[in-house]
């Protein structure tokens, strides 16, 4: 449909009908699309766009607000996109009528729709952006005059100001930089006038509001109150960026008004928002100092009163929510004030004096700490931590008096609460429901909340250790006293008694963990008495016993403090502590047997065994004198029939290994390793001789070829799986935990030095090496067989019930899809295997075995070191086992191989074995990975293009495939980084810790920042890799491919590697013109795909300029690649090429001018986000520059002279004679 030619009224009537149709919910989609397109065509092409818009925007009895809004949109469209083409008379017509609409074209303030007000203010703002101040000098006077016509016009004028500063100062969305500067300058020039205008309006309408309100004229009062609220919103847009002199004008009048309004339920929210922008200002110390007026008694009293006022509930819930929103804003204001105070306090002598009424400020913060909303407590806690961390404030006597109050009110909130089940709730539950929509969201918050509260406890301990310690001491004493009265009390995970114990254990650990860092410590005697108290309490409930073990673990530090200082009382207590731990280790509830143990009993036993590992790791020297006693106890417990499970025994041996590392005696340690590993390695080798020959034998051994058996006890292959798991765990614990002394002298004295390396450094031998090397052939056989489980014959042999046994675990899928929530309680509850189906148990077993084997190999590279790399035939052995059947293995099995083994293997390889071991393995792996990743990225790109994978239409399996491919790509690029430029120390060992193996596959832990700096030149190993044709080709193709694969993270990593690689290749002359062109194309493709991300764009532009500069001297033809950029300017390109032809003297640094030129040339190519792709270009013409008259400059002496030989002195001293 098209609109006929006719007069404005006629066409407008047609448009009005069309808009009504378009916005009607009853119209079919196709018809709506047709009329929408017709409207768009009219907007784009009709010369009557502005006139019809104006006609439709007028108030008329039968004209809906939707039609009026469309009319205003037409006007805005005309101004935005046609202003440069229309005539001067048309501009004046639009401007005069828009201002007329502003003055009299809207309904009364309370009746007019918000979207109409917004659209009308936009029309005026768009004109201002094009004409003010140069061609519209009367604007401010016109706006001021419009305000005299009533509240409705005043609100519109304020909206105009607010929208203008959003575009110019806050969001800076104005398309022309020059115009933005002009308007910014004009606003600043007139700011005193504009600001006093705002304040005048606020005071005038506030007094009118009070007057009309007292007379009972509710509608007039509502109109005035609305204007005051809009003034506050508008001020909020200004106060953040204007000069502090305006904010503080008239002795801080604005701040006084805002503090006063905090007490008024109607205005408190916008007033707090405005105040928040002021206190969050950055700037110089002199500016910030002026904000200290908020620490005056009056201001603090207003804030305190507002914080403690009861919520004005009037039957409806809305008011209550508004008040709660206000309290959250007010807490943020206090945080801003605290930030300003911390910035200024101690800067110079005058500012290190505490504000006179600091106590009122602290009382207000304490109010929020005590509030029943966890969110408010959490926000207030940030302030306390800030104060406790500040060098001067934390010594302040007044603050110290608040620490007991802080601790008393914070500690009870450490006790976990559950998300309320019903929607009807009060107290804390009401706040939880207001802030969090689901259990998952609440649990994520709760984890963060408790972490931050515990950090508060740690910081408070650093300031007032005796206060925090006394509190936890009393809390623990009270709990034990209460527990003694009922030793048979039965608890569970959600029982209030257990939850309080668990919170107490966390608080105790937070406080005691800081004891060694401070001078004013609680006496060791007190700590040991507490420990004695814990030893005397023996609850029969496993949950309470587990929490008690946590308390004992925290207090263990006092034993380490007591040994050197007094008559050794710690030594007397140590055996009793160990007895307590061992008693928990063999805990059994009445009537339970080894086969029927409850989850709680298994959990407390596992906790006790892990505690032995923990204290052996933290306090090995304390346990060293009692090593033999612990050893004897463990041997006794491990002897069959043993009360311990095999896993518990392994954990205890792990603890003993950690202590034995401090013998610093190679022979003694290697004998001890033999005792631990002997049976396991013999059994492992025996199992392997039969069961690891091929995939079918392994499947028979673990039961994959038979139907699943749901009852674990009746599963004939269950024992086999258990035996294999124990063997691997035992060997892994030796490989991970057995170490060489850090001190070279001790290592030499303890016979750890085996020889000297090629460079003359000592080569150390690990006590575990002679026991681990013999099992490697069996381990390689197992890994080869596990990889072969994916070949067709093996898959066909799976029993029907185990068809999905090799699938990804559901928990791993949830991780990849981002569905897992943080659970604070993982340590408290180990998942109970018996509750899973046989299939899930099998999936878990296969995944765990696979991951543990690679942890063993990855740790072995680092721990065994040279003895591992010098094994004859190691490279072919790895290629035929670890890296066999790579094309068959799914990504989730390949990822641990790359991440957990390949990275440490590359990092730890001694230079002597680069050629013989590392290059052949890397050649095999990189060739496969390059092909695999390229093919996978092509497949995923096809999915995206065909619409198979997007935000709306997501098949879960395809998302998982995409995520696994991204993770695998990042991991392999990380391996290439270690190979090409060297890694960090963290690359030496597998990424996951022993205590909490996450399997090293599906989801990444947060990485440390320090690892992101990459060297500018390739390492010694990098040079070897690039020199060998077998590795160079695939490695370089992989790095260049990653630049343009659809993962911005991998692209950024690859960007950091491309520079050093290209420099190395250019330096040794191995590049051809075709390769040089390929490199440039890869960088440009990366820009095209990832240019929308700021970090990627910056790095790629720097890289592009660097690489062009590096390649240009030898390969002048690379300019042809740049000529293919769509819409490239030949002159700019020529200029760039000439600039680059000049050899830089700055080494690898690129001059800014060259980077800017490269960005300009590639600008058409740089990728944009979807939101930017199809935007219609807005062009704003620059107006004549505004002349800024600065101070008159003093005339210089040499300018006074009249000729070049005259120095000017004569003229300077000439005077009347």
From TrEMBL:
Residues 987-1006 are annotated as: Disordered. One of its GO terms (cellular component) is RNA nuclear export complex. GO terms for biological process: protein export from nucleus; RNA export from nucleus. It holds the Pfam family Exportin-5. It comes from Bombus vosnesenskii. This is Exportin-5. SMART domains: IBN_N. Gene3D superfamilies: Leucine-rich Repeat Variant. Residues 35-104 form the Importin N-terminal domain. One of its GO terms (molecular function) is nuclear export signal receptor activity. Belongs to the exportin family.
